[in-house]
Write a structure and sequence with these properties.
With 84 residues, the protein is an all-alpha fold. Helix content is 83%, strand content 0%.
Length: 84
């Protein structure tokens, strides 16, 4: 059922929330035989699925970058500077 909804979201790019959910589904299916069958049957669908997948992967990477920037800020914190 989730796969059918994800395919529908890839075919209809108007709904951003559905696109995000579809990206998550395709991300978990990536590198499986089912995913390969989905993208091998129709070149247009393959392009749409890959676009959804790239957008989802991009959102994950941007979140990781924000976390890294916050970690760097705390890594440079020195408590001894306040205690002395």
């Amino acid at each position: 059922e989730e796969i059918a909804q994800a395919i529908g979201a890839a075919d209809n790019p108007a709904d951003e929330k559905a696109q995000g959910a579809a990206g998550k589904v395709f991300y978990t299916l990536e590198k499986t035989d089912l995913f390969e069958q989905l993208i091998s049957t129709d070149a247009g669908r393959a392009a749409r699925i890959n676009a959804v997948l790239e957008r989802y992967a991009g959102s994950i990477i941007s979140q990781d970058t924000e976390d890294t920037e916050q970690d760097t800020e705390y890594r440079n914190f020195d408590m001894t500077a306040f205690l002395s």
